[in-house]
Amino acid sequence: MSTLQDALKKAIQPGAAVEARELAAGPPVGVAALPQVAASEWARLLRDGGVSLPADAAVATYQQKTAGVVKDLERAGRSREARALASARDEFLRLRERKAWEGVKARFEELGLPEKAYRAIKQEGADPEKVLGRLYTRRAEEWRGIAAARLRDTLLGK
Question: What is the DSSP string of 69-81?
């Protein structure tokens, strides 16, 4: 007990250097575990096309820029490049959605939530990234044993 008190007194003394401990960085969870657009083939094709976006740009920003570039390429008669860019976008978005649903399912199993609620949410056509983000909140830990219909309404914001 005295060593703890001594350490606290030492830490709050004016001018005392406080040692920071490194937090153990585990693997990313939730939305952070999804494939990042900046490292994708889609982003590379955009960069090759002369479009520069910040590394932390949202997926929606990439989609908006891609739509413009595809139209410009088609108007310029470069339809093969336009199709390649659109195809890379579609592939990435399918992969990201699939990974998001896999993450939702894994989190449902981890929390012991009903399979029926998972199927209902998926059938509803919900955005899997939003659902995944909501499953990694403090409130999600309290949802153990909740009824499937109530859980679906909670996650979909109804």
Answer: HHHHHHHTT-HHH
